[in-house]
Structure to design on (1500 residues):
């Protein structure tokens, strides 16, 4: 076993951090100003961040990606979510199932950070696990007409390209639709508990006409949805690590620099206990997430159940750590815009998005009970 | 033992609920529009709500007040907080320590809901437990000049009267200052994680001149602060019950009326389990809070340590219940403005305001370990 | 509302405590010596303990019983379990469903503590909820022949009378069988994690012949089993309070009287925190259990779901409190026979006996979600 | 990063498992029969188990040891504890601080499993952290006379050699005393909550006379005690993994093979949920423990604080997992001697032995808050 990031990985993280910090200059990206996702993409296009998972550079892998995700998510959860939905989810679709022509057309711009993608999946509720898709495409010569309604589309109003899941001749297909296509309408961005800096909206499609070469061809079964969920879960895992890291460091620094009753807050045992529990949760979550990313590469079959376990664990840890962090900051934590408050608002999302905590538990119960993490 | 509310109590709760519902008409009071606190006060002035604890009507007591608090807090946490800071905190100061003249001057209008009060206590941090007050008054003939800086003053920018804690000749006194007094300045209302509909701001006092009959005369020791903390804790206890009630009912109703995979959500065991845990926490918290209110009246000495226990328990329960509620509502819970999201945002406040969870634990440890709840 | 025990109740508790302490003289009753249950019964026959619930004296009720249970269980969990299985379970069967003749025959001796009863319910597993009974009786003139196998019968080897649940003409009946009846055989008492002082064994019945007047006549449906479960749950509730009380007091006293590093252990904040959490759990559990007992009398319909909530809460609390208690006692807690170690061993039983925690959660989910504790 | 055990490590685990299974043949080693520790040592002497950490074979390291510990502890916690106290604690003392002559004299027999060692550390309480040692040695020519009283000495009555911590000229030294030395007396083995198969007793030394070459020479400061604690913590970490593994597998197998209401128990969601939480805790604990073992080798400075975090996490996980396991087994889990009941009894020891959970939290708070697990 070996638990260290390589020097190349550490250098990559530092590069991301430096360039993004220069861009951010301490600004709060967690408000409803949606122009910043594209600016951030342009910056990240100069690092290796956007290549990971799509055309992974030599010497990197899934664990490198998880470490990079943690780095960005700690900086701004909203930018992170926007970027990941474009890169790892939309980009992953193109890289995995796209035709050669589709890959050539879209992947280079995605990896340079020149276009922003979105994926429109959920309909009636956030989870599609139990319900059939109602969105569908009808062929009309060299074109398809797509109609349907999607809820909770991240990047919905600002994406250049949307991958829309729907039925084509009774089977699931993914339709790539350009922003501006007649019949495509994104709703008003929702005001949300967290991730307010990521544009999340409904998207309605009313006979959106696209050429047939903008379809990712129909899938044999629903397993494509499982794969998309797996990627979403991976994104949420990275987010959880970043939220915890930001919240933990914020509370630790506050406790070291603020005083009460003549001594630094960290000298109060009740504060030190909370920090030590936060640290333990952060460390354990990191290990679990890295382990999961590693297994995704080395034995993908085993990884699905591991991912559910990791997602349940890390998202609950993120809620706890950010909540404790707020308590340490006390009054100043309750004021909007500090890293702990931002993390606390975002943490709950991780438990309901992707495979929800409840459904994850059912799935682990159903299928995973024969599996052992360490061979 | 007897665990029922009397018929008179039940009628009082219904009266509050009916009048407030007619006033609210489903509006969201959790946004930064601060005119509504006074409108709500006027409505509540027509019920017995504002009399409880100040000039308690025959047949009612502390448990009646706790039940009434729960009723209002479930309706709107922000209005509840504004009203309580005026009635039970500011009003409590006047009723407990005010001179006859002061009582006559202010109590009737407070109980009719004609004036809104505020109490300015905390300075450097939210908790004053470990730090001396810096605000002070200097006598100048028949007048006092008050200077100091207060953080986190609820109703700060909108109150008609502020009770400001400070030092007078080295001892703690409470200065009653009218809005508009020269030198009194409330800061911009904070944007906060929760309770956004309650105006919370800094308040600075720069040689505010008040006549000496607007002082609540100096106290022998710091125990007045303990009493104010106790009242704050009581207010937070009521808030916790209301938040849990609103969140629990919101999730239960959603689970009964929304379907997934062909059956109502409540039919999924993972959902039913969460609801059953939420119900248990709500019930237990109610019992604990009523018990505490009852002890406050029957054996006040024992009540302080019981209050710390109850506050720790009920505020943690409120966070759990509202968090679970959000998870049941999934995507729709994450959108701002629903009762579960509102409750989740507010719940954390209860753990840091009043005697914080951490300090409560220390205090229970210090002093209460000889006490047994049921004689 | 009123949360106090009456003076008569307090006097009754004191009487039980005094008489039992005089009997116990500090002996450890948690080892496999089963003669003591009958000695204890004789002592308790001189108090009002054995009358509660069977022929409740004026001025007492369900809450009095719960308080009395807590008192005895804190003294010796094993004796408590033996006595309760005889009095409230076996005795409850006779008092509720017995004929006048049966009541006359058995109740007076039960209430005087002259005979020890047992109830044989479970067969394949500890919970009968999902499985049909295999034990059955076949009529033969004025007699019945009973055959079947029972697991986990408390008092099995030492009871004078056993009430055995089985089928008679396809419906559930309760057969009262005397110790010594041909064909009745109790197995070797189990060695168990906890409650080692209560004789728990298998009981097999091989054509046990009893006169027909020793049958409690067949029931319309399985609801009799629900009632028996409810009583078992009530017994476990009382046990949980007693375990917590004993464990909490043991840890508190240890922490006050033992020193480390020059100061009493209680002066270490990590110890004081644990004690304060234990106290809160004990207090909350008491309230919940008393509330449940009160509801059982005042609105029995509502009480069933409340009982499940209370049982889940109080049995988990008992495990936590006794576990924390052990940690405070450290090495000396790990040595067998101290109150904390005894409580920790017994606590887990409460979660699996009666309606198990898992099944309770299902039942709350199924049926109880419309109920509100405080009217 | 790399999370796999090597083929050599896997082969080593299998060898231990096969040889020990052949020896154990399903016998219960958790009762007070203390001859078996030496038999087990003899078996293990034929594997590489006893060399790890003392004269580690090429290709193995700290993580290999942790995996081997988990394997043995899952088989029998009591044998494991006896063996480890001899090998890693007593043996570690000789290998680390012994003179060349001492190493030559004792290490080969230890690694062949021919002698059993013990370490006598604690005096008044289980934790020596806050209290000075009272045991001391007085030089008398070529001899030393050792006197003192030790509590909780594992292997105390059965060890061939005891390493006794005490003061020599005001500094801490370790005295190696042979069983049978005049003045050395081990008390009656304690009856304990768990680990009953390991002989734990008091040891008293009354002018035990040993030659000076049986002293491990005095240490500069108390840091030797920290190192011993670290090793104890490592042993407890391995125990926790083994307990969890045994309990989890026992519950999983039971749930698959037992039926209720016409279906296997595992088909009940409440059971499957518990199993999935147990699996997650086991997996996470494994990762944390391996990570800690790895850090102990690669950057020992950082490892101490990591060890405290890991110990708190893994020992609490062991209590939860074994407790849940018992609940799944229900009645049959409560009967003594099954793997779940054994694990539950032993788990609590991990929280109080070594650096206790409470003191670990203090220490993490004190010193470790600047540390980040993954560089």
């Amino acid at each position: 076993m070996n638990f260290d990031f390589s020097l190349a990985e550490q250098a990559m993280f530092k590069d991301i951090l430096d360039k993004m910090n220069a861009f951010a200059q301490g600004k709060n990206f967690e408000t409803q100003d949606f122009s910043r996702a594209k600016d951030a993409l342009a910056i990240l296009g100069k690092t290796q961040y956007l290549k990971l998972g799509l055309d992974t550079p030599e010497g990197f892998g899934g664990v490198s990606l998880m470490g990079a995700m943690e780095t960005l998510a700690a900086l701004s959860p909203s930018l992170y979510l926007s970027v990941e939905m474009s890169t790892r989810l939309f980009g992953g679709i193109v890289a995995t199932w796209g035709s050669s022509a589709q890959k050539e057309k879209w992947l280079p711009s995605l990896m340079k950070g020149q276009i922003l993608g979105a994926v429109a999946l959920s309909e009636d509720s956030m989870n599609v696990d139990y319900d059939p898709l109602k969105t569908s495409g009808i062929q009309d010569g060299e074109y398809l007409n797509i109609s349907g309604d999607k809820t909770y589309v991240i990047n919905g109003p600002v994406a250049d390209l949307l991958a829309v899941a729907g039925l084509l001749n009774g089977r699931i297909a993914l339709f790539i639709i350009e922003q501006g296509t007649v019949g495509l309408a994104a709703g008003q961005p929702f005001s949300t508990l967290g991730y307010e800096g990521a544009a999340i909206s409904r998207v309605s499609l009313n006979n959106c006409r696209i050429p047939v070469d903008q379809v990712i061809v129909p899938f044999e079964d629903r397993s494509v949805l499982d794969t998309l969920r797996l990627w979403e879960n991976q994104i949420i895992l990275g987010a959880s690590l970043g939220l915890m890291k930001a919240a933990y460091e914020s509370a630790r620094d506050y406790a070291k620099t603020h005083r009460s009753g003549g001594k630094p807050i960290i000298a109060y045992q009740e504060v030190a206990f909370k920090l030590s529990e936060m640290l333990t949760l952060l460390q354990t979550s990191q290990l679990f997430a890295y382990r999961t990313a590693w297994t995704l590469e080395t034995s993908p079959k085993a990884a699905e159940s591991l991912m559910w376990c990791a997602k349940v664990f890390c998202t609950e840890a993120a809620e706890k750590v950010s909540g404790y962090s707020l308590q340490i900051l006390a009054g100043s934590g309750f004021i909007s815009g500090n890293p702990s408050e931002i993390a606390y608002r975002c943490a709950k999302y991780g438990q309901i998005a992707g495979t929800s905590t409840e459904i994850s538990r059912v799935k682990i119960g159903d299928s995973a009970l024969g599996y052992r993490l360490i061979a």
User: Anything to note?
Assistant: Chain C has eleven helices and ten strands. The two ends of chain C are 12 Å apart (CA to CA). The first helix of chain C runs from residue 7 to 24. The CA atoms of residues 287 and 329 of chain C lie 27 Å apart.
